[in-house]
Amino acid sequence: SVSAAFQEHLQHLGLQDFPCGLSSWNKSCLNARGRPRAEPAGVEEAVPLGEEPPEVLLELLRDQHSPWALPPDCSPQDQLLREASVLAPELLRGSRVFQVVRSLRILDKGVEEVDEGLLQFQQLEELVLSANHISRVTSAHLPRTLKVLELCCNAVGDLQDLCAQPPPELQHLGLGYNQLCGPSQEKHFTVDFWPNLVSLDLSFNSLTDLLGLVSQLCTLQNLRILVLQGNPLALIPTYRGFLVDSLPKLSILDDIYIWPEERQQFHGLARQPELIRSEARVVVSIGEMKGLPNPEAFRQLEVGSEGPVITYSYCVTYEF
Fold first, then answer.
1. How far apart are CA 210 and CA 75, in angstroms?
2. Is the model's pLDDT at 279 over the cut of 70?
3. What keywords tag this UniProt record (predicted)?
4. What is the pTM of this model?
5. Beta partners for 150?
6. In what order do the strands lie in the sheet with 172-174?
7. If you count Cβ atoms within 10 Å of the first and of the last residue's Cβ in the chain, which end, N or C, has fewer?
């Protein structure tokens, strides 16, 4: 579950181990935090023997050559938690840590379940669960404060549970590289479920009904970024032009900015749905073939020559 993966991640961060947490290396300094300072400004308190000031402990976390430094691939949220565990370790004790986390990224950890333990993150705004094994998401288990939900590279094939009570403030929904297919899923992309959605990634699924999907997306008045590449519907010849004209507020389609000239070029295409056919044309260009005899290596035999004639034939097969 997500909760179990988070607890494992906390252990990996070592928020209670040197130089983090509250222990003998900073005990007196933290105990004195709540007492008024009697010394004039600019006079530093003496650090007892065996303890380290917060500045030194932070340096151990930030120096890339330190044995306590975080790996380069760690998120800014991990760095924030480590530093907070030095400056204010009492804020990260027990369940208090859930009040601090605003961004949670659990990538490629074998997560299968989005459990109700996520509701403990009352300030969570970004949830990234890419490259796991999640097949369904229950919206009742998602914090209402979520603004970003990324589920790329999972096994999501049905959105009914996710759309039961989706987070009302969600601005980005990432569902690329999943198993969405058929009109039964396209009906979930309306303003009734996502009133504040700005960015939507549906790339590399199995969506085929371009007209049906566009009729739903038209209700998303705040939608500015849309990614549909990798779906069968993206092979339709009029695909991009139809989307550009049907969604006038869209700014970026398939990671390509929509310029005014392009919008003018496709003006009126949305009123001609008959141009959209349920077929596609694929052009394959072979640039180079290796491991085959080169025909130019064989000289043309002279007329009347008794030499044998050798014929080569090749067959290239594509499976779609």
1. 37
2. no
3. Leucine-rich repeat, Repeat
4. 0.74
5. 128, 174
6. 103-105, 126-128, 148-150, 172-174, 199-201, 225-227, 252-253, 256-257
7. C
* pLDDT per residue as tens digits for the range 203-213: 999 999 999 99
Amino acid identity, position 247: L
Which regions of the chain carry the CATH code 3.80.10.10?
Answer: 101-277
Structure tokens at 250: 């869209």
Yes or no: say if 161 and 182 are a contact pair by the CB < 8 Å rule.
no
Tokens standing for 197?
A: 């959605």
Q: Which helix (H) or strand (E) holds 240?
A: helix 239-246
- 263 pLDDT above the threshold of 80: yes
CATH architecture of 101-277: Alpha-Beta Horseshoe (3.80)
Peptide bond just before 19 cis, omega within 30 deg: yes
Q: Collapsing DSSP states into helix, strand and coil, what is residue 210?
A: helix
> For the chain, how many helices (H) and strands (E)?
9, 8
pLDDT of residue 27: 66
Q: Tell me what the pLDDT averaged over the chain comes to.
A: 83
> What confidence tier does 83 reach under pLDDT thresholds 50, 70, 90?
confident
